[in-house]
Structures are given as C-alpha cells and as structure tokens.
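Holo prediction. Input below; ligand is glutamine.
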Amino acid sequence: KKMAENDPLEYITGCSDFSGLKLLITKDVLIPRSETEILVEKIIQEISLNKELKGKTFLDIGTGSGAIGLSVKKAFPDLQVILTDQSEKALKVARKNAQSNKLDVIFFLGELLEPLPIGERVDFLASNPPYISKKAYQSLEKSVKKEPFQALVGGETGLEVYERLEKECRSYLKKQAKCFFEIGFDQKKSLLNLFSEPFWKKKEIYNDWSGHPRFFFLEIE
Ligand code: SAM
Ligand code: GLN
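Structure of the complex:
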C-alpha cells in the first residue's frame, strides 16, 4: 500500500545494503544510490595507492546516511574519517550507522566546511552534494520527491554547492590532496570550467554503468 503511495522501498523497510554495510535509512536521508557504490570503489582504489594511512584524514561532506565515509572507514580503519552534514536529523542517522557498523568516525554539523576546526586540513575530500537543478527537480519521479529536498537540489542551476566547494575547500586541503565528487550526468563541461584554475592540477572524469560522466576526481599540487 505504501509503495502505491510512492514511498520508496528503503523508507518502508528502514534499511539499505551499501558497499557491504547495513545502513539504517529514514526519510531524513537520501537513499544511497548504486552509482555511489562505484564512487566508493574508485575512492578505495585511489586511497590504496598510499602505503601509510596513519595520520591521514578523509572528509565526507554532506554525508547523509554516512554511506561514503563509513564505507571508506571500513576499508581503511587507520584513516581518520570525518563526516559532516547541515542536517541534524541526517547526522543522527549517520551516527547510528557508525555505531551499528562499529566504525569510529568524527561528526560535525554545519554548512560545508564551516564546522571544521580552524587549521584542519585533510588529505582526501569526498562529496556527493545535491546537484539537481530546481527545474529538473520538477520532473523527478514522485518517489524521488519523497527524499529530502536539500539532499537533491543544488540551487537554480544544480551547480551552487560545487561553486561554493571550489572556493571554500581550498584552504582545508593538505598538499597533494585528492578530491572525489559525484556529479550530474550533464555537468561534466560546467565542472571542468568551474575547476579550471591551475590550483587544480589533475582532473579525471569517470563514467557510471550507463556511460554517463558521473565521477570527478581532482588532485592538487
Ligand atoms: N553522501 C550521501 C550519499 O551519497 O548517499 C548523501 C548525499 S545527498 C545527495 C546530499 C547531502 O548533503 C544531504 O544529506 C544534505 O543534507 C547535505 N547537504 C546539502 N547542502 C549542504 C550544505 N550546504 N552543507 C552541508 N551539507 C549539505
Ligand atoms: N543521484 C540522485 C538522483 O538522481 C541525486 C543525488 C544528488 O543530487 N547528489 O536522484
């Protein structure tokens, strides 16, 4: 009956399997997508290139259920993992997921990087921010519209969170830091333009299983 009312299955069962984790899912968080599992797999490959992870830090901005950050912590217990979200309710769900999966991570509530302590710099930054435009939101399926608006819509153009991240994250990155983003299927060109300054030394775009450019990886000097 609930599905006939367009409630997504995960909101009915209250859980989802993601990258080998069992996650509690409530209406306060985005339901983790299978594309994001590809993102996690690619992040794990990149981080595996490092021999020593003790003392290195990974930040997941807009963590929602904790899907990305908790999967990375599970793969690399030595890595210090920080999860942030502007939604207190989402962060509560992420906290429960950390506990139930026995993962020791740090939480900060607030806008993008604002809640981080002054002077904090990270080695790895990941985010699957809201990236849908207000216009595209109108034509989403009813079941997707049951998910939190602020988890889906990145302003008028869908690019607003990226515009802020491009500027704001710079002073929070260590030398040779790597950034891993999930992006909208039609945003490749805009994002290559947005991150065009020499500060962003290396840039790679990877496709999802449907052949859409979906993951944007960057590295700095
Ligand atoms: N990382 C999860 C995943 O991949 O399943 C959730 C991603 S969801 C697309 C985006 C998340 O970013 C939401 O949890 C939302 O609350 C959060 N968010 C949106 N705008 C934000 C902002 N300005 N600062 C911090 N978090 C934000
Ligand atoms: N991939 C989600 C969707 O298509 C959007 C998630 C996001 O905005 N980051 O509904």
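The first strand starts at residue 15 and ends at 18. That is the main takeaway for now.
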